[in-house]
Every structure is written in structure tokens, then in C-alpha cells.
Amino acid sequence: MSEIMKSIGRLTEALNYLEEAASQQEQQKLILQQQDLFGGDNVVALDPAVIAKKLDVAIERVEQILQEG
Length: 69
Hints:
Elements: H1 2-35, H2 48-68
Helix pairs in contact: 1-2
């Protein structure tokens, strides 16, 4: 059971890291927009597909661990 708790803890850490990275990208996007109001598309964009894929992989890992436990 402790392996499950460790895995859930690691998943939580990974999700926290992902949220922090997304927040930093959003902040960078705002900074770039403020610096170049008339510029082109040189803004950092979040890719929802990448985030969704990372979450899917994490969920699959937890489900696998729970089935093994």
C-alpha cells in the first residue's frame, strides 16, 4: 500500500510541476504581449494536447498501480 501512496505522491508532484510550468508560460506570454503590442505571433502558447497527453499518461500509471495493488 505504501507503494501506491508513493506513486500518488509522485503524481501530485508532477501535476504541481505541470501547473507551475503552465503558470510561468502564461506569465511569459503576458510579458511578451506587453513588450510587443504590434508584433506578430511571437508569443509562448500552451499546447492543450501536450498537457492532456501528460495527464492521460499519469492517470494510466495510477490505474495500473491500483490494479496491481
